[in-house]
Design brief:
This protein has helices at about 1-10, 15-25, 30-55, 65, 75-90. The chain is mainly α. The chain folds into two domains: about 1-55, no CATH class; about 65-100. It is elongated and about 65 Å long. The relative contact order is 0.08.
Length: about 100
């Protein structure tokens, strides 16, 4: 990653370089306006995606253990048992309504 960061520092931001090229060669006259529109559209898309994602329930707590291995090894079975015991005592302390049921 360091090499890429060094490259960007040396060469400059590729988006800014392209914008400068387009502006200098009169390819696009309103490049700044187009960049602002693209930024606004991206922000809108991200905001809409976040709102949609917040409405979806998390996967069941059991899926934490059941969707990794074809057959759970002993230590995973032990961890699941410990979590079940913990949630039996302290489950009300967690936002469990955000999780799908089994």
């Amino acid at each position: 990653m360091t090499k890429w960061n060094d490259y960007i520092k040396e060469m400059g931001d590729p988006i800014e370089r392209l914008s400068g090229y387009l502006r200098a060669n009169n390819v696009v006259k309103n490049i700044d306006e187009l960049n602002m529109q693209a930024d606004e559209e991206a922000k809108k898309d991200v905001t809409e995606s976040l709102k949609a994602g917040e409405k979806i329930k998390y996967s069941s707590v059991d899926n934490t253990f059941n969707e990794v291995y074809e057959s759970n090894p002993w230590n995973i079975i032990e961890q699941q048992k410990e979590l079940d015991e913990h949630l039996a005592v302290y489950g009300k302390e967690y936002p469990m309504e955000k999780y799908a049921t089994k």
